[in-house]
Recover the amino acids of this structure.
């Protein structure tokens, strides 16, 4: 399992004037074409009419990511996962929540727009999340089938080396492991004594 605070922060300078709506429209042509975005793919904060000064792309718009966006002079964050703690970014239950209110105070004074891009990114062929992950860690060559982008068959390795690979390739994120660091993942057994599924050919998912 991978746990990240930043899933690839990128500041993008735009050489001509675009609004948040322009950026979203351009992305929609790539991902869903003429179809409408799903209910999850929507503007979470800010205005569609805001002129974009810079873009930060992240897996989750955490407080640290928002602060980094401000530092970079960006005013549009494109996030894959929710900003406000539920799958649909519902906020009606958070009106008096101090954590929610503090996060809003960080977003609003800077005129920050946050757009969630989730379902439609998975609709791209190949799936945008998987394609990006496999390219980043150089696992495209290990794909079992292009029709199943979540399954890779990798050479036998130790769990420690696998964790190290993820840590080095994915922006120094934290990789959590279970079991001996020196044993081969292929040889691991569960606590009940049953052989676990081998890492070779095992599903490795990104959501």
């Amino acid at each position: 399992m991978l746990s990240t605070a930043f899933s690839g922060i990128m500041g993008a300078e735009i050489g001509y004037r675009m609004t948040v709506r322009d950026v979203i429209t351009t992305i929609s042509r790539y991902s869903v074409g003429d179809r409408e975005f799903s209910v999850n793919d929507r503007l979470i904060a800010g205005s569609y009419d805001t002129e974009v000064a810079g873009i930060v792309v992240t897996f989750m718009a955490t407080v640290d990511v928002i602060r980094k966006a401000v530092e970079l002079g960006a005013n549009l964050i494109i996030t894959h996962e929710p900003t406000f703690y539920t799958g649909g970014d519902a906020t009606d239950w958070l009106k008096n929540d101090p954590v929610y209110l503090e996060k809003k105070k960080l977003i609003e004074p800077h005129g920050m727009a946050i757009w969630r891009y989730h379902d439609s990114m998975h609709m791209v062929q190949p799936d945008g999340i998987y394609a990006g992950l496999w390219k980043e860690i150089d696992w495209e060559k290990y794909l079992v089938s292009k029709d199943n982008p979540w399954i890779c068959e990798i050479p036998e390795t130790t769990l420690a080396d696998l964790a190290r690979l993820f840590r080095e390739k994915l922006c120094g994120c934290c990789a959590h492991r279970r079991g001996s660091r020196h044993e081969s993942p292929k040889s691991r057994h569960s606590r009940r004594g049953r052989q676990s599924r081998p890492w070779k050919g095992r599903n490795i998912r990104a959501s």
Q: What stands out?
A: The beta strands are 2-3, 11-13, 43-45, 54-58, 76-79, 113-116, 143-145, 148-152, 174-175. Residues 20-31 form the longest helix (12 residues). The helical segments are 20-31, 63-72, 98-107, 119-123, 128-136, 159-169.
